[in-house]
Amino acid sequence: MGVPDNPSEVKEYLFNIFSDDAMMLLPFQKTMAEIISTLRAKKSTQRYNSIGWTPLRRYTDEIVEKLLKKFKYDNILIKAAYTHSKPYIYDEPPDSLIFPLYPEYSISLFGPIKKRMKNPMILREWYYEPEFIDVFSERIKLTLQGLLPQKTALLFLAHGVPSSLKKKGDLYEDEVKESYEIFRKRFADYKSFLGYIGKVGPAKWSRPYADELVYMIKGYDNVVAVFLSFPVDNLEVLYDIDIVLKQKAEKAGIKNFLRAPLLNADDDFIEALYKIIRRRL
């Protein structure tokens, strides 16, 4: 999707998102996007500032650099591009092969790519690939060390989407649930739950909402959050989960709220991506 690099880019980034009818439909789309982005810019900037800005672009650039070294003998050029911030994906050659860093498929994520490129070749969902499952499972195991299963719950989280997308054939919620089941079975000794973050506006979104779910699992001393929607640290994880959701969990009586680290540009993740991409070429 994208990321603003500094406060001066926040409003433009928000406008690009809310004006994109491939992501969401609004009445009087451009006008509403201008109003919403103007109203939300200050608050969004404060959120970015509270985490020292997001490392998303830095990690994405590191992923590209490391993958370039992996593919150095294949004569393959690898670049980072975004749908809603610079460098824009529509500036890339139309015959580019697109590998989204989103493990699951959604109309709201892939629609903007298709809108911006003519007949794009997209390597779609990869949440089920064994290399990804193995490296992410290691992060979960690391976080669970020393925590007794009978006193610990796993809270798997995903970014929600408007419920209306499912009626249009969107596969996202189904694939999130499949991803959840894969990891739930890997950690069967622990009670697991699935919730969603990121709701915007009054419309119905993916349920259950995470901030409601923490009150249902308050009987556990330890809750380990696991974010399924994206493998790189971003605003939703560092602010919505690590700050806001953690505070709500503590108010609900959860003594120890942790989060399994994401994969970012770690070498084992790069190796996993290399194997996944190479197998699909």
Write the layout of secondary structure elements.
Elements (H helix, E strand, L loop, with lengths): L9 H9 L10 H22 L5 H15 L26 E2 L8 H10 L4 E2 L7 H15 L7 E8 L4 H4 L4 H15 L4 E7 L12 H4 L8 E6 L7 H17 L4 E4 L7 H14 L1
Parallel strand pairs: 1-2, 3-4, 3-5, 5-6
Helix pairs in contact: 1-2, 3-10, 5-10
If you had to describe this structure to a student in words, what would you say it looks like?
This protein has 281 residues and is of the alpha/beta class. It has a domain at 130-259: Rossmann fold, CATH 3.40.50.1400. Helices cover 44% and strands 10% of the residues. It has 10 helices and 6 strands. It has helices at residues 10-18, 29-50, 56-70, 107-116, 130-144, 164-167, 172-186, 210-213, 235-251, 267-280; strands at 97-98, 121-122, 152-159, 191-197, 222-227, 256-259. It has a 4-stranded parallel β-sheet, with helices on both faces. Strand 5, helix 9 (235-251) and strand 6 (256-259) form a beta-alpha-beta unit. Helix 1 packs across helix 2 (29-50), helix 3 packs across helix 10 (267-280) and helix 5 (130-144) packs antiparallel against helix 10 (267-280). The model has no long low-confidence stretch (mean pLDDT 92).
